Backbone:
């Protein structure tokens, strides 16, 4: 069994939902079946607001708009080369070439359209990729309720171009909270009790407030960070050989960077800076305790 939105396999007859909090939504069953109920479900959990970015269609339109501007550019160059009055090219206020004036107006409109399109495309491509657990949760809910036409929900199968409109959160915290939520649902039956108020009367649909999940996740995160920072110090205190201490520093720095890059979306320069700072602190400790 898993929560709606988790990464573990689902039963097709038991979709589950796990929004971050209970914000006073009515029961899902109070909405008519179909899009009204599906929209209520999506609005209960921001990451469920997923949509296609239509990358191929955007690329196709971009190529067409780009080619149109290229042709207009070629036409303008041709008009300039065939200009019979050089004065028109050197003083735009005196330009009486109607073809050039009309063409420049068309170029301006096309450029404006091109700029708006590229700006919208850039904004769409900047959205976060939808998490697999959220997409799978929506698919399970649809399969379990059968209240939407299959052909109108096929967009969920195109996972490679699904994005979420929800603001990007702390990737490490989100992953940890998802893991904690999965474990609580699997091993702690009290987690499914009425004190975690559900927004659905369906026994297989769970919409929890995440206070417990958040507290457990924060505790685990603090323990993990403390362990990462202090474990090499403890090991180096036990080991007296300088060469072994250096090996410990190298191993711990590599482990630190691997975990950091896996849990967060850090840039290369940020990883280098974090690794350098971490290694420097450990080297200072080693040198201060061994005369290195």
Residues:
């Amino acid at each position: 069994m898993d929560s709606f939105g988790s990464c573990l396999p689902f039963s097709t007859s038991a979709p589950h939902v796990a929004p971050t909090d209970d914000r006073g939504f009515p029961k899902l069953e109070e909405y008519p079946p179909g899009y009204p109920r599906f929209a209520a479900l999506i609005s209960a959990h921001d990451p469920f607001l997923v949509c296609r970015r239509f990358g191929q269609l955007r690329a196709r339109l971009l190529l067409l708009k780009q080619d149109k501007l290229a042709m207009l550019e070629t036409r303008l160059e041709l008009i300039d080369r065939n200009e019979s009055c050089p004065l028109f090219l050197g003083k735009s206020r005196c330009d009486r070439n109607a073809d050039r004036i009309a063409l420049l107006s068309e170029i301006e409109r096309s450029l404006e359209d091109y700029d708006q399109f590229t700006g919208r495309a850039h904004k769409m491509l900047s959205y976060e990729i939808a998490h697999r657990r959220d997409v799978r949760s929506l698919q399970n809910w649809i399969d379990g309720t059968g209240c939407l036409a299959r052909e109108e929900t096929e967009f969920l199968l195109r996972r490679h171009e699904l994005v979420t409109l929800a603001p990007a959160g702390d990737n490490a915290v989100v992953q940890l909270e998802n893991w904690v939520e999965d474990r609580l649902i699997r091993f702690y039956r009290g987690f499914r009790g009425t004190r975690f108020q559900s927004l659905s009367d369906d026994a297989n649909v769970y919409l929890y407030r995440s206070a417990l999940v958040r507290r457990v996740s924060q505790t685990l995160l603090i323990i993990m960070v403390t362990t990462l920072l202090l474990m090499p110090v403890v090991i180096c205190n036990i080991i007296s050989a300088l060469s072994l201490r250096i090996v410990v520093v190298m191993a711990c720095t590599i482990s630190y960077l691997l975990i950091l890059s896996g849990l967060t979306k850090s840039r290369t320069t940020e990883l280098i800076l974090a690794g350098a700072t971490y290694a420097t602190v450990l080297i200072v400790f080693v040198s201060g305790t061994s005369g290195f």
